[in-house]
Amino acid sequence: MTTRVGVVTFPGSLDDRDAARAVKLAGAEPVALWHGDKDLRQVDAVILPGGFSYGDYLRCGAIARFSPVMETIVEQARAGLPVLGICNGFQVLCESHLLPGALTRNDHLHFICRDQRLRVENADTAWTADFAAGQEITVPLKNGEGGYVADERTLDELEAEGRVVFRYLDVNPNGSRRDIAGITNAAGNVVGLMPHPEHAVEALTGPTTDGLGFFTSVLRKLVA
Amino acid sequence: MSPTSHARPQLDTVKHAAETPDTPLPWAELGLKQDEYERITQILDRRPTGAELAMYSVMWSEHCSYKSSKVHLRQFGEKAPASDALLVGIGENAGVVDVGQGYAVTFKVESHNHPSYIEPYQGAATGVGGIVRDILAMGARPVAVMDPLRFGAADHPDTHRVLPGVVAGIGGYGNCLGLPNIGGEVVFDSCYQGNPLVNALCVGVMRHEDIHLAKATGPGNRVILYGARTGGDGIGGVSVLASETFDDSGKPAKRPAVQVGDPFQEKLLIECTLEIFAEGLVAGIQDLGGAGLSCATSELASAGSGGMRIDLDTVPLRDASLSPEEILMSESQERMCAVVTPENEARFLEICAKWDVIATVIGEVTEGDRLEIFWRGEQIVDVPPRTVAHEGPVYQRPFARPDWQDALQADDAGALPRPRTADELRAQVLRLVGSPNQADKSWITDQYDRYVLGNTVLAQPEDGGMIRIDEDTNLGVALATDGNGRYAKLDPYAGAQLALAEAYRNVAATGARPLAVTDCLNFGSPEDPAVMWQFAEATRGLADACQTLGTPVTGGNVSLYNQTGEVAIHPTPVVGVLGVIDDVTRRTPMAFTEPGQLIYLLGDTAEEFGGSAWSQVVHDHLGGRPPRVDLAAERLLAEILIAASRDGMVDAAHDLSDGGLIQAVTESCVRGGLGARLVVPDGLDPFTFLFSESTARAVVAVPRSEETRFTDMCVARSQPVTRIGVIDGDAIELQGRFAIPLAELREAGERTLRALFA
Amino acid sequence: MLKPEILDPQGQAVQRALPRLGFEGVADVRQGKRFELELAGPVDEAALERVREMARTFLANTVIEDFRVRVAEEVEEEGVGR
Amino acid sequence: MLKPEILDPQGQAVQRALPRLGFEGVADVRQGKRFELELAGPVDEAALERVREMARTFLANTVIEDFRVRVAEEVEEEGVGR
Ligand SMILES: Nc1ncnc2c1ncn2[C@@H]1O[C@H](COP(=O)(O)OP(=O)(O)O)[C@@H](O)[C@H]1O
Ligand SMILES: [Mg+2]
């Protein structure tokens, strides 16, 4: 039985096809999920892809959070369903309070697209098990509102519990507190990050193939 | 100046117009000339109604009717080289090219110059939106955008208002649509100070059978308007903004000349339209751009059988106070108009509802050949649509070679003082590399998403952008745009050919075979005979060169009146070339990445400095003649580059253009993170070797194992080839003269735009 | 705030979302920016004139936006938005 | 408005630009959003309570933002921003 990984399309999602391609290259079956549908079609994991859901009007991810599909995802994520939020997906996870904190306008106020070096700080989550803790990877980053903020107490808590999953190396591209690029929930099944692993799955089109590890991780986790 | 503000208490119906032949109408304020107005009254055999006048005035504007340029543009068709690749030629929303395996590609470049000067962010954003809808209307899925840009002097305060806004607008719209930006241009020159050029290109892909044309046939078929609601945006924008030199008088009060884009709405429009295409639900389709509904209805009807009836009351409005004339002229963005058979109507509306896109049946195709429009039950328009859309005025504008042209060409750049010592040479290399036009553009291009859709094989700063279009077969296309206004100023005929030659060369450098051309012709006022001469020469030059290179022009755009007072911009033909590559994994990137590989120069180098970057940067000089055009040499070079890519004989290639050899080598070295040792070939002096801008040249990196095979091929085909050095170390060294550390070159190139704009 | 005749995609997106969230009865939503300025000196007429100038030339894009200047919690000022 | 303890890069960029434009004496700038809602029915206490709820759950992200609800030109309302 092949593993089914759902990829949600909100109005304004952009990297949904890329995420589906990455899932396929990792050996799983991508399943398209529609924002207006509460049904998760029996998927084993869910990806909230990048893009500008609802134009990112109001705040990034703020309107998408209230879509029917998110009701089910929030519920099942609390019950352990692996969920990966990439960029806009990360913003949706924060707005949905599945992850703490918020993402704000980049400190330099510009959209930025660059190949970004990251350190994998936590290789125990559902989406990072195929990496080694401390491993350095390079994947594209592209966002206008990627500055991770949370109050000091939350930040300390994240650090103490090992819930900072990725940290920016070389440059902090958006003013994120403590160079945080991605975090996880306490259970380790929900991961959100600003950079785009789905754009680093083929040597032809990506700066590296480091991104594949995300998608193979969840596969291994689910088969195990 | 809105038609309603004239004292016309009663609705100006067709009947009323016939009864009141003497009512004065504001045709002059709407940009019509006396004889044009008289022609309208002849066509209709009465005075036009206000609504009809609105339609004719926008559709007969320079922007929509191409009245000054038409007689010259005809050459693109007349001289078009025989090409099996052309599926749809000039005249449709965009041309369509066969790229094999059942795929067709459509691409086009368009200008949004004037709006971007007034409101840089929205002007540029809606420029992207407009060109994307053109491509969509052909039946294609848009897959990438490019943005050739020209600004005033880099250090001028107004450039600091315009550039960041334009870049943010292009990024804001394109990124939000999910279209990778794969290339473009950034050129600074004070001639663009009051007239920045914001051109936008979009490319789309479809299957052959999916090509859609903009025509309305089949009486009883529904005319459906879908997308955003209609507001007062850009009313008069087409005629006032795009066709006349700026002046503040006569803009309608409370009717914004500026259109605001909503990329999210456009994204929904794209997905919704593609789903509609996939189910085969449209008989004809047209995007709404300049001239809004006036344009869409009259063009659809004119290209079809001619008859159409529209009930304007059904148009969903954002502003209930709009008059019927204003609804017809509104340029609200993110709208499309489709012709749909009655059987398909329900499904069409259902798909729109799924995507949250408002869709309304606003009329139907009728028997006969009149476009009739009704408002509150009364007829306000009754016209033969061809006279609005396709039979507008045509001008034979007078043109004359300007009297200063001879003096300009006589002011030979070859006479400028040249660097005498190795130190001077070194210093000038650094100045060149750090000058705004040659400098690294990543401060700009980093604001664009180049990864989205996951098919970007090459993007800036590569010579051409490359997109994979089939993930199984690895079929792909490459695109480059170029245009050098300095060359074109010195000689518009040659300048246009050089623009084509450069874009063609850039595409070939990636390993793709050039197939077809789009162009955006940016010029000053056609009412100035000197400008008109530049235009005539440039179009002639481009048409001739396209014929020689076998690459037909498939479509494009003309932007006139780019001038402030009496002073026109440099004539700036921007040329986009599309190429095809059967296997994108064989692409040739520009970076030098293997120490020890040999660097070869392909092509001949002569002393050519007219219009060169060196003459601009070092001497602030523009004079003489541009580099000699040699299309046979371009063609041969392209064949060599394509063969080398296909057979794996080169690992890197980079074309030579402005800045000459040293600029190209610097870019390839910086990108690859490796230095080079260069030797001046016999018979050349170091200065000419480094800075000349002779055309039909490229540098390539050849693995040692391929050296013989590669040079044999060149010799066998009479391609000039010279070994000029080796990739090595962490500096660029000109043997016996100077060495510049790579870090210093990188820093010089990367610092400039950041220091100016960050 | 965007001028009333200018399209406000953000406001519209918010308005469209409200009924889905169970908030009915909102006839129109427009979204704009708000700046809070803290002045170093006294907020007298001269200072206010400078702030208005700032708003006109810099904070607002008067091609598409109107603005109002208001002194916090006290005076209410109508700006000259065009 | 962003909570005072949250970095406001937009406000800071504005503040940094002001002296260059010849505007001195601005000690602090913060940038936020402003929504104008037009209600279909009467603006009574029940309606206001609904609007406050809307602000708390949707218009503002109370993780990082405070908000105030105000009835245009008339009543002044302090919201419960946290
Ligand atoms: N406005 C822009 N948008 C996207 N890419 C750009 C832009 N300006 C320049 N580029 C890219 O930067 C690179 C260098 O540009 P340029 O020096 O003009 O190239 P060339 O001389 O080969 O035509 C190219 O890849 C070009 O596509
Ligand atoms: Mg090039």
TrEMBL record, chain A:
Catalytic activity: L-glutamine + H2O = L-glutamate + NH4(+); N(2)-formyl-N(1)-(5-phospho-beta-D-ribosyl)glycinamide + L-glutamine + ATP + H2O = 2-formamido-N(1)-(5-O-phospho-beta-D-ribosyl)acetamidine + L-glutamate + ADP + phosphate + H(+)
Annotated compartments: Cytoplasm
Main location: cytoplasm
SMART domains: GATase_5
Source superkingdom: Bacteria
Listed EC numbers: 6.3.5.3, 3.5.1.2
GO molecular-function term, one example from the UniProt record: phosphoribosylformylglycinamidine synthase activity
Pathway: Purine metabolism; IMP biosynthesis via de novo pathway; 5-amino-1-(5-phospho-D-ribosyl)imidazole from N(2)-formyl-N(1)-(5-phospho-D-ribosyl)glycinamide: step 1/2
The protein's name in its UniProt record: Phosphoribosylformylglycinamidine synthase subunit PurQ
Source organism: Streptomyces hainanensis
Classification of source organism: Bacteria, Bacillati, Actinomycetota, Actinomycetes, Kitasatosporales
Gene: purQ
Automatic annotation (TrEMBL), chain B:
EC number: 6.3.5.3
Gene Ontology molecular-function annotations: ATP binding; magnesium ion binding; phosphoribosylformylglycinamidine synthase activity
UniProt keyword list: ATP-binding, Cytoplasm, Ligase, Magnesium, Metal-binding, Nucleotide-binding, Purine biosynthesis
GO cellular component: cytoplasm
Coiled-coil ranges from the UniProt annotation: none
Reaction catalysis annotation: N(2)-formyl-N(1)-(5-phospho-beta-D-ribosyl)glycinamide + L-glutamine + ATP + H2O = 2-formamido-N(1)-(5-O-phospho-beta-D-ribosyl)acetamidine + L-glutamate + ADP + phosphate + H(+)
EC class (word): ligase
Catalytic residue list: 63, 112 (proton acceptor)
Domain of life per record: Bacteria
Residues annotated to bind Mg(2+) 2: 134, 287
Sequence positions that bind Mg(2+) 1: 110, 557
Subcellular location: Cytoplasm
Nucleotide-binding as UniProt keyword: yes
Biological processes annotated in GO: 'de novo' IMP biosynthetic process
Domain PurM-like C-terminal stretches: 218-375, 594-730
HAMAP family, A to Z: PurL_2
Quaternary structure note: Monomer. Part of the FGAM synthase complex composed of 1 PurL, 1 PurQ and 2 PurS subunits.
Function summary: Part of the phosphoribosylformylglycinamidine synthase complex involved in the purines biosynthetic pathway. Catalyzes the ATP-dependent conversion of formylglycinamide ribonucleotide (FGAR) and glutamine to yield formylglycinamidine ribonucleotide (FGAM) and glutamate. The FGAM synthase complex is composed of three subunits. PurQ produces an ammonia molecule by converting glutamine to glutamate. PurL transfers the ammonia molecule to FGAR to form FGAM in an ATP-dependent manner.
Protein name: Phosphoribosylformylglycinamidine synthase subunit PurL
Species of the source: Streptomyces hainanensis
